[in-house]
Amino acid sequence: MDTPIIALADRMKLIKPSPTLAVNAKAKAMKAAGADILNFSVGEPDFDTPDHVCAAGKQAIDDRFTRYTAVPGIPELREAIVKRFAEDKGWHYTPEQVQVCCGGKHGLYNMAQALFGPGDEVLIPTPYWVSYPPIIQLAGATPVLVPLSEESDFDLNPDVLRKYATSKTKGIILNSPSNPTGSIFSEKALKAVAEMALAGNWVVISDDIYDTIVYDDGPLPHILNIEPKLKDQTIILNGVSKSFAMTGWRIGYSLGPQHIIASMNKIQSQSTSNPSSVAQKAALAAVSGPQDFPLKMKESFLPRRDFIIQELTSIDGVTCVVPGGAFYVFPNLSKYYSKSFEGKQLKDSLGMSEYLLEKSFLATVPGVAFGADEFVRFSFAASMEEIKEGMTRLKKALSELS
Ligand SMILES: *Cc1c(COP(=O)(O)O)cnc(C)c1O
């Protein structure tokens, strides 16, 4: 290929194309060509945004609430978030300690730009959400991957964490319930993280986007409840994408120490300005209105989780940790990687995902995208019929390998 006239910025060398794209692009092309694709690769609820939230969005348009807003979001939305957090969690923030942004991912991006730079190391429990390492790298910092093991239900092991912490450690990203594993960090693990964070002056980034989709009874263990002293060095990332089925509206929010939020506002003011005015009004209806929608959603996911777990663990050689929250399962399919179909060995999670797509029209996300090649992610935000059909196809596909 000829060298193009315009060279790209050096930072583009840091970012690899997502390994999920190959499977995704193929799934789309197959579907367009009429194939009966069952899509278990989606990372969003299979619910519509609730009516009262949509109505608030429509009303905002009719009211011509269509101009720039304050950079960190409209005051009434930030106040509603403050109130919701005080009521639901007992955490007290001021509106100046809240930034509304263009989705949870954007909150993470603003945070990383404000806090991390060359020489900083950020601990990332692995399997991780796909966007954590690149966002840390785009800030010039170094992601340090801390392995979690399937045997301990993907809980954080403090002894392992200690091995990866150095004098350069500036922060840690927690995501509990986790995407892709659905695992919830134990009180014991979080207590150990809290001790290390206090001793090392780490910033704790808590991505709580799945905190309304929790299947176990009792409160979700949270580092801020375990160690309230950490409030001055913790950023909470959340949003309405998952809890109110609002992925396309692009509203996330972050809460944390005022000087950090103020810096994130500076970044936001020079990049995206305010998040969409209309979407903010819709998010206001979600945050300040009735909270039964996330509860209903969770109740509808539970039988689907139980069914898919029962099916997966009944397959010879397959293990799968029961997710405590979110809507993903992360089965270990690596026993099948040494097997072949029509003389071609699967080899890895990408090979497995490609095989399931080509052979059985099942779209999944290979574990390598989350830094864990033994696994493949299935979303169970699909109908029970689709899950049943999908598991039948999976069993057949695996049994036809030799
Ligand atoms: C979906 C998700 C988010 C937020 O996504 P947005 O669409 O940007 O709001 C953040 N963290 C994790 C782990 C997620 O799965």
UniProtKB/TrEMBL annotation:
Family, as annotated: Belongs to the class-I pyridoxal-phosphate-dependent aminotransferase family.
Its EC number(s): 2.6.1.-
A Pfam family matched in the record: Aminotran_1_2
Domain of life from the UniProt record: Bacteria
Keywords: Aminotransferase, Pyridoxal phosphate, Transferase
Cofactor: pyridoxal 5'-phosphate
Protein name as annotated: Aminotransferase
Coiled coil: none
Any single GO BP term: amino acid metabolic process
Any one Gene Ontology molecular-function term assigned to this protein's record: pyridoxal phosphate binding
Domain Aminotransferase class I/classII large: residue ranges: 36-394
Key word Transferase present: yes
InterPro entries xref list: Aminotransferase_I/II_large, AspAT/PAT-like, NHTrfase_class1_PyrdxlP-BS, PyrdxlP-dep_Trfase, PyrdxlP-dep_Trfase_major, PyrdxlP-dep_Trfase_small
Segment forming the signal sequence: none
Cross-referenced PANTHER family: ASPARTATE AMINOTRANSFERASE
